[in-house]
Amino acid sequence: MTEVEWQRLKAHEIRRLAEQDAVVILPVASIEQHGPHLPTMTDTRLGHEFAVRAARLASQTRPVVVAPVLWSGLSEHHMTFGGTLTIGPDTFRALVSDLVTALTRQGFRHILIANSHGGNTIALQQICNELAATSPATLVMTSYASEAAAEIKEILEDQDGLQHACEAETSMMMACEGALVDDSDLAGLANTKGRTFLRAGKGSYRWRPFTHLTGNGVAGDPTRSSADKGTRLLEAGAASLAALITDPQTWEDPEDLRSGDVGGVAFRD
Length: 269
Fold this sequence. Notes:
Blueprint lengths: L10 H9 L3 E6 L13 H17 L5 E3 L22 H17 L4 E6 L5 H12 L5 E5 L1 H4 L1 H7 L11 H11 L21 E2 L3 E2 L21 H20 L14 E2 L2 E2 L3
Parallel strand pairs: 1-2, 1-3, 3-4
Antiparallel strand pairs: 5-6, 7-8
């Protein structure tokens, strides 16, 4: 089996991957509370699992290497439950930006930032926007939850998509780290009240702590979670990420559709 994990490779092997125009997956996650039944590493463990599985699938088509997971994410909304480690937006931006720079300095030009924590999403989009103007690399930000949304919906029985410490995450952790899952009272943990968390009005945003949504740290219904369901979710998410990596359109250069001038005045870059 081809080795895809950066930390398990030697320096010259990583240099060779850069020469081969390998895609780098940079997983970004969190350490935060996941209810009474899941470990705080849930997002980090799943982010690593999806990245490695996707890399192994995609490496049949082109070289792929997975960087170590950036576990320190934006989790202020979970702090009141305890067990959560969070950093500030400026620190997060600096960490991601510096790691991208470290990758590009070694010659990597295709970087997939694979996010496995919803609280990081807006910041990662902003970071990609900021870096795109000057970075020599094409940066793509994704998540398994978005790329495999249709497949995840088909597999789940009690939810339409990924929530928090829910049917999906519980099932996947059963498949990855079953000994760390407390399944003694999953039905008693269900939180399906449907209350909004970060929304106001018809389409507005309003920050709230996670305690506004749930009393036990769970959003969703883990009752019918299973390791078999978790394996199917992991396979679906990894396949979707691999398809994104191997699609040439993901990494194509931007087009410039301008003519020489408009209104008789030439453009300047």
